[in-house]
Design goal:
By secondary structure, the chain is of the alpha/beta class. The protein is built from 15 helices and 17 strands.
Length: 475
């Protein structure tokens, strides 16, 4: 083993033993070089190895911090069985999860929302004032489909940096990602059509499918790699599929990431069957390794991929700024948007365009990625320490949610109810499936700042979960 690997292994051992804890700063490359008597290049390479393994994250002008150990404790792999097309019936519990996320006296581990102070509100306010000074009449005008050119140009520029060349004319500005997804589904599917989706799937998407009177075919997804391509092909051949809807980059709730080779194969499969493929790309900018993974659209050669995203999870939810790449469905999407919402907000698009064009956006995103990487590590560690024996959880490489599998027979809905009585909100697993599966699973939101309140909430949640494990005696 070479010197960099040996040095990295030594630091990794300190992380695994708890000598170095999540959130703590490790020695800089210069400090490491001096303390260990090795060359600077050796120290640099040791840092790179630790970062590649997801054990540390570097924050510019701040230092390198411990994330791990980021152990995948083996969420049970899915059964290789497709569902028959079925109607969607989302439990009313969804509304309560969203409502509790807004309550001031509740620790919000349910809805996937960020603490307000993690958004660059001061910068957004400053850019808003600047835009209004330059164009004071802007709030008096519509931003009719496809939206303001400069906003669409900035979206195109960002995509081009990640291997996805899109003309601004091919971008449609939307009121957040959910409008983008709704437009994509309406443009490609008629009521009653079957949509192929990964399972578990974000309950907001299931709600949209239900409202549009669409059926679903659930495709069990692997917690690390996402959809099984052999099963995708089986579904496309077996059923009359109107469209596919996937989250290839840090899916919600699994956090799975599909590699480029499998993305290209997925796009090719749908193209060969002439079925449109809808992509939710909202978490792609939140990679813990820093490099944004490429969207499915980067592999699209026939215009059959419709990519949806927004800045609600990264910059500001209040401006409702999203976008859609409709491919060959561009004209239909524009017509649908014109008849439903008349387009997005002119002020929101102008403000986001200015912010994206500035250096502040990249600085903000670098800090946000570091924060989520550390926070997911801290929450993971708390779950491993406080939850019942046999609890398993995912090890996402991006995003800010954790999928937790409780011991078999544990009622996650009852855990939700008891937790809420103690001022803690969570999302029970049944919300993430049209068949109401995942009854012993919960999704935890890591979009908060670490605090004593949060630590106590996770400990209490673990105590409540232990009480619900079948066969457990309560003192």
């Amino acid at each position: 083993m070479r010197k960099p690997e040996l040095l990295a292994a030594e630091i990794e051992a300190h992380i695994s033993s708890g000598l170095l804890k999540p959130g703590e700063r490790i020695d800089s490359v210069r400090e490491l070089s001096r303390l260990k008597g090795v060359g600077l290049n050796t120290a640099v390479r040791a840092h790179e190895i630790l970062e590649d393994r997801g054990l540390v994250v570097t924050r510019p002008q701040s230092g390198t911090y411990v994330v791990g150990p980021r152990r995948d404790t083996g969420v049970t792999p899915p059964r290789r069985r497709l569902s028959m097309p079925r109607e969607v019936d989302v439990p009313g519990l969804v509304s309560l999860v969203f409502e509790s996320a807004q309550a001031q006296d509740v620790v919000p581990l349910g809805a996937a929302c960020l603490s307000p102070d993690l958004y660059p509100c001061e910068a957004i306010n400053r850019f808003t004032r600047q835009v209004l000074r330059e164009v004071p009449e802007l709030p008096g005008g519509y931003a009719l489909p496809p939206g303001q050119f400069e906003y669409r140009r900035q979206v195109s520029r960002r995509l081009a940096r990640h291997g996805c060349t899109i003309d601004p004319a091919e971008v449609v500005a939307t009121n957040g990602a959910m409008e983008a997804l709704s437009l994509a589904l309406r443009a490609t599917c008629a009521p009653g059509s079957a949509v192929l989706i990964e399972s578990p799937q974000y309950f907001g998407i299931l709600q949209a499918l239900q409202q549009l009177q669409l059926r679903v075919v659930e495709l069990p997804a692997h917690p690390r790699d996402g959809a099984d391509l052999a099963q995708v092909e089986e579904a496309l051949e077996k059923f009359d599929i109107g469209a596919g809807l996937f989250i290839p980059n840090f899916s919600n709730p699994l956090g799975s990431l599909m590699d480029d080779a499998r993305k290209a194969q997925l796009v090719d499969l749908f193209a060969r069957h002439d079925v449109p493929l809808i992509e939710d790309d909202i978490y792609a900018e939140l990679s813990f390794q820093g490099a944004r993974p490429r969207p499915l659209k980067a592999f699209d050669r026939r215009g059959g991929v419709l990519t949806c995203a927004s800045f609600s999870k990264t910059v500001t939810p209040g401006l409702r700024a999203g976008w859609l790449l409709p491919g060959r469905y561009l004209e239909r999407v524009k017509a649908l948007q014109l008849s439903s919402s008349m387009g997005g907000g002119s002020l929101a698009q102008a403000v986001l365009a200015s912010f994206l064009a500035s250096k502040e956006y990249e600085r903000h995103m670098a800090g946000l990625r570091t924060h989520f990487s550390l926070q997911v590590g801290r929450v993971s560690q708390a779950v491993q320490q406080c939850f019942p024996e046999g609890t398993r959880l995912t090890a996402p490489r991006g995003g800010f949610v954790l999928w937790v599998e409780l011991p078999r027979g544990t009622d996650a809905v009852e855990l939700y109810r008891r937790a809420l009585e103690h001022g803690i909100s969570i999302s029970p697993g049944i919300l993430f499936s049209a068949s109401h599966s995942y009854r012993n699973h919960v999704r935890l939101n890591c979009g908060n700042r670490w605090s004593p309140v949060l630590a106590r909430a996770l400990r209490k949640l673990g105590e409540l979960a232990k009480e619900l494990v079948p066969g457990t005696r309560v003192a």
